[in-house]
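Lab notes, practical 5.
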Amino acid sequence: MWFTEDIGIDLGTASVLVFKKNKGIVLHEPSVVAIDKNTNRVIAVGEEARQMLGRTPGHIVAIRPLKEGVIADYDTTEKMLTYFIRKVIGRSFFFKPRVIACIPTGATDVEERAVRQATLSSGARQAFIIEEPVAAALGAGIDISEATGHMVVDIGGGTSDIAVLSLGGIVCNTSLRVGGDKFDEAIIRYIRREYNLMIGDRTAEEIKMRIGTAFVSNDKHDRFMHVRGRDLVSGLPKTIKITSRESWEALQEPVAAVIEGVKKVLEITPPELAADIVNNGIVMTGGGSLLEGLDLLLSNETNLPVHIAEDAISCVAMGTGKVLNEMKVLSNSKNRGAKRVF
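Output from the prediction step:
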């Protein structure tokens, strides 16, 4: 009897999620690989490697091989995928699995081929590609097979994919190179500008998650946290206090880019589908959608109801799992004829 363990992979800039058929999500680890430069040997992958970011000696380098949703370092991505697939399937798998991987809607043909090839080289028997908004919508429990318009805003680590879906495919969309990483960078820039303090990526991410907000109301209690970094004037370590209102100021630019992207897609949405979106609202998925107040701000700016998916971070991976059971979705989901905002 043929026995294969098909898997779906949400190959994200910040983290990789793996869905195993009939098992659900079995792996959720950061997309980080630590490599010894002298021997080119992989020392750690995932959470263990993330702990090393910004803390390694000269001969060890911690790499994030995906940038803005696509492969930036092919060899390292292949090593990372091989590690994750083996961890999920087991080292001695006899039959290679079928793998479905996700790409942003803005990925070029070359970038799509790179993902497919890296997946095959990592031990897949067959590699299929699905676009993130389609997988996110399926994972959020939306029935996209109907002749009804649904709008999905998927904010990941490297990209934000905004799409209107109907009859199993994408009608119009845009892909922004703005996501959780750009939120972190904006916080780092703000603190350097306002306080002459240099902080690392992990500290910026912690600020974003603990006190970061996209919407400030006057009656809200201003939360704060203490942040440690290096003083750019004295060169010595220093601690400052950052408030949620300051995080709001820092995040203005990347958040505005996402809102603008949503408005531009709505502008080119056919009227019948626009009417459906008024009823169904906008569904937000991805880790970036969990930024406090982003749903309120988007609702205020568009005058539409906005819902955050139940398990926003896992939606894309869950969607790949649904496609494993319904492979014909892949043929309908190809984005070739979709209207696109550039």
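Observations recorded by the TA: Residues 74-89 form the longest helix (16 residues). Residues 259 and 298 are 6 Å apart (CA to CA).
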